[in-house]
């Protein structure tokens, strides 16, 4: 995925050049095919939602102007925004094909997600492929139909012909009369149920919500933004306030636009749609070209913390409008829908976005700085406690997203890190390093804006070299003597511990363990540590993971074991395990009574010790003027606001 002198994973410079040649050849071939097909080529979809209570939908895919004796059709195996093979073709119940005159055509499945139709050309140049989809997959934001709505992530529902991927198309929605359509796609004049897309790539990146939902709009810099919320048949959640949401969401949109575009450049879209699925257990979101799908529980609106968490999700997904949907890493452009798309830069695609999601909320005043620092401390604490941080590099985490991050198992905590979380940490450290070497004349905002201008969606994706060189150039242009390459590569290609202390110290912050000290000593009070995580299951504490740096791992405790007692005391949950261990001193023998494959076992081993506290981020007591200035430049909040009274208003 790397270019120039950068050392890539099995992809040196000559390999990348070969890839470019291959892509150019493919582009020329597509143009030739399109020219041969002529202007009469037309692609139409008809989506029939006539039995929503059965959670099924019928799709007709029609191609007019077909040439040749066969037509290949395929369904993507993944969807943009989730780096995991989902194989939605498994939900297709049946598939048939016919010519324009209605005569059946032979259709043969050639791969798990691809078919070939034997056409009737040249006597009949129309092919219609019909199939039924079972749509009961809401949580992964791919397809869901019930008696209140239908949601489609097009990559999981609409087949395509690879050679015709660049042709314009239309989608006709047939649904109950009282259902409304919401999508980032443009509708045909006079018919909101006929949607248009210039090509399949735009269709794939434009989810469609049809059904019973509430909608309202707000305007930012003359551009409309729509919020659509589906709740099933439930009433509006307690605490929900659409006027508040419109006002505060507009501040997020306005600020993030300013990072990439300044105050005068137009948005990269003519309108934007926030699709909200509000239902018990809802969580997560997915970015798209000029829309996003966010899922949340109704309880989010009941508390200030819930609102902030919701805004963090919206902030993350909207930031992707610029970082990923426009500025895209090499390896993710163009999308290959039939297999994994590898890149070592998810620590930028997702990590940079994760850095800015909560940071944006502080900068626009939606989250108090004290709350942000508390969350930052919790994230650093989790990083320092994760054994996998000493095993997997950030680039490896990105590259292996398809087989590790999105397919976690009991060993993940010991062998992996998150390109979201650790990517966010590294981006923060890069931000502070740029500020340090340039005396706060250069920051990560400027790097992202520069990359955004130089790597538009219409051009090639950026490489690791491009990111590093941009940081280096901006730093040097400011008069700094910097070595951003060594700094960044150490962070993303090694497992050396991240150096938070010196970076945050620039802004008058320190990282300390809040454990109390032993009486009459400077040593931190210790607690017993065995290194198991459990969940309550079947009246026992079922082990979900065993930390490789703990004594339980060495003693042979395994994921799936059901711990029923510790030192003779019954345990059924993590809270009960922790409660029993409070009475154990580091170095003392711990006896676990557990069931494994329904056989009772006992394991004895000595408990380790860990500081009886967690890592927290706090302000230093006597900051310098330079530290205060850096703090204010970074968070866009005055130091004195939090200093008076100790905490900000919440």
Indicate the mean pLDDT: 92
Label the structural class: alpha+beta
The share of residues in extended strands comes to 25-35%
Summed up, the helix count is 19
The overall strand count is 31
Order of the strands making up the biggest sheet: 5-4-8-2-1-12-15-14
**CATH superfamily name of the largest domain?**
Neutral Protease Domain 2
Known CATH architecture of the largest domain:
Orthogonal Bundle
Nearest-angstrom radius of gyration? 27 Å
CATH topology heading of the largest domain = Neutral Protease, domain 2
Q: What assembly state would you assign to the polypeptide chains in this entry?
A: single chain
The residue ranges in which pLDDT falls below 50 over 5 or more consecutive positions are 1-39, 644-650
CATH class group of the largest domain: Mainly Alpha
The separation of the N and C termini measures 45 Å
Largest sheet properties:
8 strands, mixed
Structural domain count: 5
Helix content: 25-40%
